[in-house]
Design goal:
The complex is a heterodimer of chains A (114) and B (119). Chain A is built from no helices and ten strands. Helix content of chain A is 0%, strand content 48%. Classes of the chains: A mainly beta (114), B mainly beta (119).
């Protein structure tokens, strides 16, 4: 079975541009998470989707960040007007809803803002 | 206060020896879960082992075991018979409100420990 798939694997863009990062979770997983990994901050939670419930956006660092999940499957994380501090690896994870089930991560998107 | 503390930024271990990676946590929630992940230089996060706060026995998974000391709020990862392929970053993570149905089940991660296995 396929794991969590993220695209692109690398993205280089100029400051001020918008970027879209895509995540395709493991089939059957109802929960989907976005995390950000940077040298200074470690791994930080960004947003969580569970089925058709309203997402938990409590980790989004600013209103330039948004995410959606269509049809309970694929998710897109959008960063508008990118800043240099947005440079990081963006990791997507998915899991079954059950509380003790591990989250399975994709390989991440390495975002570099010039 | 940090919720997950990994005090060892880097560790070295001789191949075939055992190694313990430390993790302490801070929560007032009675129901929580602790997870360990491995991140090789290639970048993927690989789930290793899980321990629930109500689990009576320490978790084991192949060469990995978790030394769970609830009163001390520690959940150290023990890797037995180290292999060269074990060289990686290791992250301890916690999920709170495990059985209440509240919260989003997000993971809070420690800063990680870089393990290097020496031939």
């Amino acid at each position: 079975g396929a794991g969590v798939s993220q695209s692109p694997s690398n993205k280089v863009t100029e400051k001020g541009k918008d970027v879209e990062l895509r995540c395709d979770p493991i089939s059957g997983h109802t929960a989907l998470y976005w995390y950000r990994q940077s040298l200074g901050q470690g791994l930080e939670f960004l947003i969580y989707f569970q089925g058709n419930s309203a997402p938990d956006k409590s980790g989004l660092p600013s209103d330039r960040f948004s995410a959606e999940r269509t049809g309970g499957s694929v998710s897109t994380l959008t960063i508008q007007r990118t800043q240099q501090e947005d440079s990081a690896v963006y990791l997507c994870a998915s899991s079954f809803r059950d509380s003790n089930q591990p989250q399975h991560f994709g390989d991440g998107t390495r975002l570099s803002i010039l | 206060a940090q919720k997950i503390t990994q005090t060892q930024p880097g560790m070295f271990v001789q191949e075939k020896e055992a190694v313990t990676l430390d993790c302490t946590y801070d929560t007032s929630d009675p129901s929580y879960g602790l997870f360990w992940y491995k991140q090789p230089s290639s970048g993927e996060m690989i789930f290793l082992i899980y321990q629930g706060s109500y689990d009576q026995q320490n978790a084991t998974e192949g060469r990995y075991s978790l030394n769970f000391q609830k009163a001390r709020k520690s959940a150290n990862l023990v890797i037995s018979a180290s292999q060269l392929g074990d060289s990686a970053m290791y992250f301890c993570a916690m999920r709170e409100s495990l059985y209440s149905g509240a919260g989003s089940y997000q993971l809070t991660f420690g800063k990680g420990t870089k393990l290097s296995v020496i031939p």
